[in-house]
Amino acid sequence: MKKLILLLIIIPNLVFAESMKMIGEKGKSSEIDKTIEIKMYDNYFEPNQISISKNQTVKFIITNYGELVHEFNIATKMMHLKHQKEMAKMVDYQILLGDKIDKVKMKEVAKKDHSMAHSHANSVLLEPNKSGEIIWKFTNSIKLEAACNIPGHYELGMVSKFVGL
Ligand SMILES: [Cu+2]
């Protein structure tokens, strides 16, 4: 029984690690091939298309010029759709407040629900007028897009396609 429980804990994490590996890996600052500036508005990114080559390490400097909280998350469309459910939960928990992130509450809730911790190397979540950085190495030829998964934003077009992989 103990083994079974252990497996049940390990398997979802392995699956997660696997899909994360599929989209690439956290890049090293000593290996940056190019830097791309991303501007966030309500509710779109500039640029909405990003050229990447396989095995490039890219530093993204992301700034939120909008009036709402936005996310920049590098993943497959499938992963984004899954992630949107977590984001909806963050709104339910009142962690996401339109133009604010309640970080105290986020920490509190994350103790019970780890999906709410929201610290992955492939994404940043930014309040208005804040900037963030991601260094990402694109190790695979796979269809990727950067998206904001805050409820409604993706549907409104807050997505930027990666081309060239
Ligand atoms: Cu957004």
Series of H and E elements:
HEEEEEEHHEEEE
| Hetero ligands | copper (II) ion
- Count structural domains: 1
The number of helical elements comes to 3
Question: Can you describe what's shown?
Answer:
- The protein is α+β, with helices and mostly antiparallel strands and 165 residues long.
- The protein has a single domain (2-163), classed as Sandwich (Immunoglobulin-like).
- 27% of the residues lie in helices and 30% in strands.
- It has a 5-stranded mixed beta sheet with strand order 1-8-5-2-3. The protein has a 5-stranded mixed beta sheet with strand order 4-10-9-6-7, with helices on one face.
- A hairpin with a 2-residue loop joins strand 2 (34-41) and strand 3.
- The longest helix is centred in the first third of the chain and has 21 residues, at 2-22.
- The radius of gyration is 16 Å and the shape is globular.
- The chain starts with a helix and ends with a strand.
- The mean pLDDT is 91.
- The structure holds copper (II) ion.
- The site of copper (II) ion has 7 residues, from strand 6.
